[in-house]
Amino acid sequence: MQPFLIAPSILSANFARLGDEVDKVIDAGADLIHFDVMDNHYVPNLTIGPMICQSLVKHGVSKPIDVHLMVEPVDTMIEGFAEAGASRISFHPEASKHVDRSIQLILDHNCEAGLVLNPATSLDCVEYVLEKLDFVLIMSVNPGFGGQQFIPSTLHKIKRLRQLIRQSGKEIRIEIDGGVKVDNIRSIAEAGADTFVAGSAIFNQTDYKTVIDNMRSELAKVHSV
Ligand code: DX5
Ligand code: ZN
User: Using a 6 Å CB cutoff, which residues line ligand 1?
Assistant: First the structure.
């Protein structure tokens, strides 16, 4: 398993020139393209759908598209994004009536499957589905907007989840989303996360490569996961 992955969130990109923004952030060293889908129903914001994902794939995006569904219900969008070329799809358990079925739907479409836990959502949610998951996405802000502050109690949650994953004996990634910056990425990695979503930290700067390089330098100091 590749140790650390950086997944810039295009939520903070300039949507008027999205293809160029994605090219630029891949040139700067992105491992995944994090694609936030909001429906003004599950979360109080509205963003982009499968057509935009398909446009990026046609444009020639060379890194996997990591679709984070903040929509309710989820199953139709799972199918839409799988057909649009997504590589990884995650959803919030509160938004699906049948969580196991939605996970299976992602896997049946040959995508990697993830479950997303909000700051107040218990780890109990993953207990009976952990073995089916490729990753768990821990929200370190309440979903809906970029540029929020990292919620510190998330670190403890990541540590507990890493223990559960070790006990399962499976290689399951822990992705963290919300308020990730150069100055906190190391402590998040030391808690046990290995995949880092960062929106405003990257896209609010003019030089994306410097931010990603600085994140990697911090990650190089991590002792053990
Ligand atoms: C929030 C989204 C995040 C968002 C993170 O609901 O899921 O992916 O883009 O933005 P930052 O990194 O600015 O907190
Ligand atoms: Zn996200």
Answer: 9, 11-12, 34, 36, 68, 141, 143-148, 177-180, 197-201
User: Taking residues 50-65, what's their average pLDDT?
Assistant: 97
How many Å apart are CA 175 and CA 137, to the nearest integer?
Answer: 5
Q: Which residues pair with 46 in a beta bridge?
A: 39
Residue 47 near residue 35 (C-beta atoms within 8 A): no
SS3 27: helix
Q: What is the pLDDT of residues 133-158, one digit of tens each?
A: 999 999 999 999 999 999 999 999 99
CATH 2.40.400.10 corresponds to the domain 5-219: no
Which of 118, 140, 145 lies closest to 47 in space, CA to CA? 145
Task: Give the separation between CA 214 and CA 217, rounded to whole angstroms.
Answer: 5
Residue 119 predicted with pLDDT over 70: yes
Residue from 177, 185, 212 whose mutation best tests the ligand 1 pocket (most atoms within 8 A of CB): 177
Using CB atoms within 10 A of its CB, is residue 43 exposed (0-12), middle (13-18) or buried (19+)?
A: buried
The residue count of the chain comes to 225
Q: Per-residue DSSP letters for 79-126? A: HHHHHHT-SEEEE-GGG-S-HHHHHHHHHHTT-EEEEEE-TT--GGGG
